[in-house]
Amino acid sequence: MGAMVLARWGATALFLLALPLFLVLSNVRIAANELAVYRYAFDRYEAEERTGVARADLDRAARDIVLYFRDDRDLLDIRVAIDGQEQALFNPREVLHMRDVKELMGGAFSVQELALAYVVGYIAVVYLWARERSLRHLARLIALGGALTLAALALATAAVVAGFDDLFREFHVISFSNDLWKLDPDRDRLIQMFPRGFWFDATLAVGLLTIAEAALLVASSTGYLLYARRRRGPRGRLGPPAEVAAAAAWGGASRDPGPAAGAREREP
Questions:
Q1: pLDDT tier, 265 (very low <50, low <70, confident <90, very high otherwise)
Q2: How far apart are CA 187 and CA 234, in angstroms?
Q3: What is the pTM of this model?
Q4: Quick check: 119 and 22 in contact, CB under 8 A?
Q5: Which among 51, 31, 25, 60 has a CA at the least distance from the CA of 201?
Q6: Which one, of 136, 133, 153, lies nearest residue 19 by Cα?
Q7: Is residue 105 very low, low, confident or very high in pLDDT (cuts 50, 70, 90)?
Q8: Taking a C-beta distance cutoff of 8 angstroms, is the pair 163, 157 a contact?
Q9: Considering only Cβ atoms within 10 Å of each terminal Cβ, which end of the chain, N or C, has fewer?
Q10: Dist. CA 54–CA 101, nearest whole Å
Q11: Angle at Cα 28 formed by Cα 175 and Cα 153, nearest 5°?
Q12: Based on the number of CB atoms within 10 Å of its own CB, is 74 exposed (0-12), middle (13-18) or buried (19 or more)?
């Protein structure tokens, strides 16, 4: 097997890996930057009552957390009024954990951007510039990537539903090199604002949204393949809408075989 064939297989395998990574991490990025997600956490899990912090201050803290993930601050310092006195919303342990979270999110966002760049670059080079493969091949590849994403996310969602607590703990053990993530729900406001139940909801939402996106990719790619098959006709010939153009192309090819013949044989 030649090196070129192996390189093409490797590039295709990376495409199939980059596609689900892009979908999942894009949804994670949306959730991390969407204020509606934070408001859901505060409403659903009664953050105002749990923390003793006014709702207006909680909403302001949510906006600051979103900005913190984007800017170059090292530590997150949010001041709120509690019992008439201004104080830090998070204690030093929580602040240091948020720094770790910011680093983790930054890495995830970078992988998402790389995955997007690879998917776009692969399509641009292989299908648009070099024209090594047909659009029908691209549709089949996207359908395969979507199907693999569906299978993986279906298994992951089932695992989350069956044993979220264990997965949540293992995620933190793998993702962080310290135990700053072990917070006390009776004392630490970070976990009072975003309790474990919220993380279950958010994880499930990201999984279900990714499943829906993968299903859309499979459906649209399959639809294109069916359309292309109908257009080509039952024996690979162009269907009725293109008969005139086909006849013209055939006539031109009989006078000047070569490039026209190659163009006629190319799949749509």
A1: very low
A2: 70
A3: 0.82
A4: yes
A5: 31
A6: 153
A7: very high
A8: no
A9: N
A10: 25
A11: 85
A12: exposed
Structure token pair of residue 91: 């204690």
**Predicted confidence (pLDDT) per residue in 195-252, tens digit:** 999 999 999 999 999 999 999 999 999 999 999 888 876 555 444 444 433 333 334 4
Do residues 45 and 195 make contact, with C-beta atoms less than 8 angstroms apart?
yes
Rounded to a whole number of angstroms, the CA Rg of the chain reads 26
Tell the residue number behind the tokens 């549709």, with chain if given: 139
How far is the C-alpha of 150 from the C-alpha of 219, rounded, in Å? Answer: 12
Quote the CA–CA distance of 127 and 56 in Å, as a whole number.
51
Q: What are the structure tokens assigned to 57, written together?
A: 């201050």
Residues 6+ apart with CB under 8 A from 13: none
Residue keyed to tokens 């990201």: 206
pLDDT score recorded for residue 128: 74
Phi, psi of 151 (to 5 degrees): -65, -45
Measured at the CA of 137, the angle between CA 142 and CA 109, to 5 degrees, comes to 30
Alpha-carbon distance of 99 to 76, in angstroms, equals 7
